Amino acid sequence: MIPEQIARHRHQVLARIQAATERAGRPAGSVALIAVSKKQPPAAIRAAHAAGQRAFGESYLQEALDKQALLADLDDIEWHFIGRLQSNKTRQIAAHFDWVHGLADATHARRLSEQRPASRRPLNVCLQLNLSGESSKGGVAPEDVSALLAQCAELPGLRVRGLMTLPAPSEDEAEQRRPFRELREWRDRLATPECPLDVLSMGMSDDLEAAILEGATQVRIGTAVFGARPTN
Asked: Which NCBIfam families match (predicted)?
């Protein structure tokens, strides 16, 4: 996709976000766009950056590190790791990312905290909830999230910012909203003055409106910004 198309598509996504925010009666600017750039070439990220995008989501560590090296001159990019965590990758994730969106394991939490460079601020993390109970889906069971949150609160290299989920796709808005509402309700139960959990990372290209109506503060959008991912 040429740069002008990426800029135009990003503008269209921002317009959808604004319309949904207004529909929800929420303040303008209360929903951030994470441009999911996995499988996209560095040139596409440069084009989105030139259009004003600063937050980018990556799922594959080595691919992301290669891009970061090639885009090192763009020193204001905020890198979000949105893939599934693995113990043998936590050191590099802790060193090279600003956010992790899929934390669901106490061992991974400890490793990320211990491996976070002292020169960097604590790593922003969102705890992933598995609201469907499907074994194929990542995330912590809702009944276990309170314990994980308490463990993370003791780790100086982490800053728990909120919750995230990846619901099953649906074309019905009411069905789309159900898991997002459930995540918001869990946030409301778990939040404290010390850990307000002000971030709800939920919603993608096909359901961002439903997510925003239920309180999303970050939406992770790939296809609607960059178009279909390259097949090679």
From this structure: YggS family pyridoxal phosphate-dependent enzyme
Which tokens go with 98? 């600003």
Q: How far apart are the first and last CA of the chain?
A: 14
* Domain spans of the chain, in order of start: 3-226
pTM of the predicted structure, to 2 decimals: 0.96
Cα 156 vs. chain centroid, distance in angstroms? 21
Q: Show the tokens assigned to 231.
A: 């097949």
The two structure tokens encoding residue 158: 């982490």
Residues 32/217, Cβ–Cβ less than 8 Å:
yes
Query: For the domain 3-226, what is the CATH superfamily, name and number?
Result: Alanine racemase (3.20.20.10)
d(CA 154, CA 159): 10
Give 194's pLDDT tier (boundaries 50, 70, 90). very high
Q: What confidence score (pLDDT) does residue 184 get?
A: 98
Residue spans of beta strands (DSSP E) within 59-211: 78-81, 99-103, 123-128, 158-164, 199-201
Name the H helices within 97-138.
106-115
